[in-house]
Amino acid sequence: MTTAVDTAMSRAAARMQPITTATAAKEIGITEELREAMVTADKLTSSLNRTAWSRLALVAVPYTVVAVLLWLLVIPIAEVFGVGPLSRWAWTSFETADTAWGRLGILAATLAVVAALGYGIYRGGKKLAGIYLDWR
After folding, report:
1. How far apart are the first and last CA of the chain?
2. Three-state secondary structure readout of the chain
3. Rounded-to-integer distance, Cα 46 and Cα 53, Å
4. What is the spatial distance between Cα 24 and Cα 29, in angstroms, rounded to a whole number?
5. Residues 121, 127 contacting (CB under 8 angstroms)
6. Which candidate, 38, 83, 103, 115, has a CA 20 to 30 Å from the CA of 55?
């Protein structure tokens, strides 16, 4: 078996084109160019990731500020209009309800009130948007 393998190997080696120094130099040059391209691609990838994240952070700053200001303003206004005490009352009633039907009724009523308030806010926003469009 080893003689057959040795014969096949020697035939394959004979068929191979001998590598000249020019071919080897060309292959080394191509390898170096590929290596440099990979390094450049890695640098660009990390740079693009940093750029994308920094732009995303810059875009998120105004929204974060608005959300914090609304949170700081809405909670006291909600307390003044009684939304906070009403939600605490609904939760306490839900906890103390004896039957599942009682809890379901309290849940349905609370969700209906929240939906009605949300719809009122939506309609008010649409009306304000219409008013602001007329200012142009």
Report:
1. 92
2. CHHHHHHHHHHHHHHCCCCCHHHHHHHHHHHHHHHHHHHHHHHHHHHHHHHHHHHHHHHHHHHHHHHHHHHHHHHHHHHHHCHHHHHHHHHHHHHHCCCHHHHHHHHHHHHHHHHHHHHHHHHHHHHHHHHHHCCC
3. 11
4. 9
5. no
6. 38
